[in-house]
Structure formats: C-alpha cells, structure tokens
C-alpha cells in the first residue's frame, strides 16, 4: 500500500465521521435559531396585543412613549438574562446597546426586547461553536497521535489558540456577532416597514422566518468552514510535533475545481496556510492534509512502526542517517523532493532543443546526443530516471526560492554519452521543485 492510499483510507473514514457529527451540530444550531424565532414572535405578538386596535397598529401608536411598567419589566428581564445565562464579554458589550431611558417610544422598546433575545441566542451560539471547535481540534490531535506516535504538548491550550485564531482577518466569534448585527439591522427594518404598511403579526412572522433562515444557513456554513480550519491547523501542529517536513493536499471525491487543482500536491509543513494551500480553500470545504514521505521511506516507516517503534524514534534515525550521508560543508546533496520534480516540456520544445529559439543549445544537444524537438520526450524521461543518481549543488537563492544544479550523464539515441546540466528551483510561491534550464555541459 502506498502513502496516498494509506492516508486516503484513513481520511475518508474520518471525513465520514465528521459529516455525521456535523449533521447533529446543524440540528443544535437550528434549535438555537428556532428558540430565538419563538421568543421574538412572542415579543411581536405581545406588542400587537398591547397596543393594536381593530384596525391594527399605527406608526403613531408605536411612537408613543413607553409606559413605566413596561420599562421596569424590560429591566427585570435583562438583569435576569445577564445573571442566569452567564453572558460572554461580547454579549455584555452588545447588551449595553440596549440600556434604555424612559424617553424611548414603544417601537424602540420592541426592538430592544428583540435585541435582548438575539444577544441571548447568539451568545449561546458562540459558546456552542467554541465547544464543538475545541472538540474537533482535540479529536484531531488524538487521532494524529494514534497514527504518528507523538501527541502535541498541552493539547488543550494549543486547541484554545487554534480555535480563537483569526482566519481571513476575523475569528469565528467575530463572524457570529457580525451575523447578529446584520440580522438585527434587517429585523429593525422589517418592523419599521411592517408597521408603516399595517402588516399583521402573521405576515411579519413569515418574513421573520425567511430572514432567520438566511442567517442560519450562514451560521452552519461558518461552522463547517471553521471545522475544516481547526482540523488543518491541528494536523499542522501534529506533523510538526512528529517531525514531518512535508504534507500532501488531499481533495475529497466531490471537490471543486479549486481543490482538484491542488489534489496530490506537496508543500512544506512550515508553509501551510489554510485558504492558500490547505483546507478550507472556500466555505464548506471538506478536503484534508496528510503527512507526506516518498514511497520507499513510507514503507520503511510502516515497517518500523509494525516492529514497535514510534514516529519520533524513526525521525531521530532519519536525522542521524542524513548527518552521516551529507558531506559537512560542501553544499552537495540529492535534489530535494526529486520524485515530485516538475519538468515543463516547453523548456525543451521551445528553448533547449528548438534551433529557432536557442540555436546554440539545440545544436549542442543534436551533435552530442542526437536529441531534437521530435524526441524531446525521451530526453525528459531519462532526466526523470537519472535525477536521483546524481548529487545536487545548492546555488544562491534569487528571491524566488532555493536553486540547484544537477549534472548527469545522458545517453543519446545516437549511442553517445554526454554530461547534461539541469538547473532547478524550489519555488516559494508554488511549492514546486521545477526544472528551469537544461543544456549540454561543455566542461
């Protein structure tokens, strides 16, 4: 079993488990929203019962000063909510917006009472999201530790940092309260319009449900997106803890074109950034990231684990082996990630073997080895096959990424052998190890 298959089986199993969990989470979110709708409908119906005539309620009636008894009732309810619901700091900040005076009118009082119910509901939503996002993060720490061998130190503290981190300039909490503000603004307009048009409570209730439906969808989408984010961040911490230097982007089966374009690509763990080269690449993203090592090393790693070793011990052995193999300060090494090297065919057909574009290189290849544009694929294939057999010399970083030179012996279709110099870049932007130039070495 190769590395990709190994991880695909595990990630698919975990993704299905996550989907089942998120269905239950959706039900809880729906319940929170439904409770808000029920309480707000009670407030609206109470408002109509108190002030409406047979002809309905007029704006003039709605703008009369509120009675003292109504003000006292509101204050008692607000104090009760603050005491019993243990509001968060953000909820208490929102509550201060509804500190009223006796000069307010009935409509403003209704909006304040609705605002109170919304603060209560969204505070509950924030706490619930904090709970389930923390659970997802801790679950991922535990799952990866079970596979890789070593757990993240102080996982609960690490989870708190991950859950409350900013993603695209806002935390999950910021977005929840942004949704609250948007919904509150829409409901205020809805009430104003409803009173002007003389709508009855049933019509208002229908419009209210529509507005809440949109907000609930946004909240559920936020939950799934944040779930993907914390899982990616937890995976990153776990891979760092276990000494993995690279990871692979693994798109789910029904992935969008954005994610499919990244599927199977490898990136450095230290460069992982959700939204750029890790899930979530977009709202509702369910793709994954997995540790990456080449096939031979992967099989050796599994064999080591089967014999009772740990990933931590495996990484120590790898480092020890590398320190023995690598000549101290010569700058000579194997080309990094050579098995994933990208060789653009255009470098041969449009430049190195094209007599119209680069006559000197093309003439040298044809004379020394018999390669032309017509048999470029054979040359590319031979470079792929031989790249691991020769040492790479590191060159200065030109700002776009580390550069390397690999000189190898190539056998041409004319039966001759010549040294060919290949130049490579470890591109900072794309994460690719890519061929940039190739020519016959005359030295």
Q: Ends: how far apart?
A: 44 Å
- Strands, total number: 8
Output the radius of gyration. 32 Å
Percentage beta strand: 5-15%
Q: Which series of helices and strands comes N to C? A: HHHHHHHHEHEEHHEHHHEEEE
Average pLDDT, to the nearest integer?
85
Looking across the biggest beta sheet, what order are the strands in? 4-5-6-7-8
Main sheet attributes: strand count, strand direction, barrel closure: 5 strands, antiparallel
Outline type: elongated
Percent of residues in helices: 55-70%
Unreliable spans are 324-331
What's the helix count? 14
User: How many domains is the backbone divided into?
Assistant: 3
Which class best fits the helix and strand makeup? alpha+beta
SSE layout:
Blueprint: H1 3-51, H2 59-62, H3 68-84, H4 89-95, H5 106-148, H6 155-163, H7 172-197, H8 201-241, E1 246-250, H9 257-262, E2 266-268, E3 288-291, H10 295-306, H11 311-325, E4 332-333, H12 346-352, H13 359-368, H14 376-386, E5 392-395, E6 401-411, E7 417-427, E8 433-440
Antiparallel strand pairs: 1-2, 1-3, 4-5, 5-6, 6-7, 7-8
Helix pairs in contact: 1-5, 1-8, 3-5, 4-5, 5-6, 5-7, 5-8, 7-8
